[in-house]
Amino acid sequence: MATTSDIRNGLCIRHNNDIFKIIEFLHVKPGKGPAFVRTKLRSLSTGKILENTFSAGHKLDDVRVETHKFQFLYHDGEFYHFMNQEDYTQIRLLEAALDTPELMKEGEVVTVIINTEDNMPLSVEMPANVILEVTATEPGVKGNTATNATKPATVETGATVNVPLFINEGDKIKIETEKGTYKERVKE
Question: 129-186 belongs to which homologous superfamily?
Fold first, then answer.
């Protein structure tokens, strides 16, 4: 059993007959009244986000998890297939278990969180950044840069990301996976 003082990003807890992963939290100590913790939880079975407030000292049923490195192999329409980097076993997961499947290309190494009680995979954590090639974008118009102007670009996985006007087709860009936003252009 854990308490609200143990709350951190990535902690997996059992709540309302489901397993949730804490993706955001804030300890609040108002001037009047008791302290509490405001959290954002992601259901590991459905992918839905739930906002919940726990009073200070509230007992939480934490779930023991292990993390393993898996390589993304392919997507067959319904399932995403992964291979364990250590023993080469393969697993398949539904899209709900993935944070940003649209930014994942074949061969990408991700971290899979596995429940130690039943060895079932719970969720997939992407690396902080991925490098993808731009496959389609409009050419930038010269002189159109009075502000931080952006344009949509399609990357090799099919995702659309807003990029600065100087990015062209064939450029490799670094994308922050948590927000799905452009970070920088990558030189080879």
Answer: Nucleic acid-binding proteins (2.40.50.140)
DSSP assignment letter at 5 = G
CATH of 2-62, one of 2.30.30.40, 3.40.50.620, 2.30.30.30, 3.40.50.720: 2.30.30.30
Check residue 128 and give its pLDDT: 86
Write out residues in the chain with pLDDT < 70, as ranges. Answer: 141-147, 188
**pLDDT at residue 142, rounded to an integer:** 64
What would the two tokens of residue 137 be?
Answer: 């974008």
Confidence (pLDDT) at 26 = 92
CB of 14 closer than 8 Å to CB of 59: no
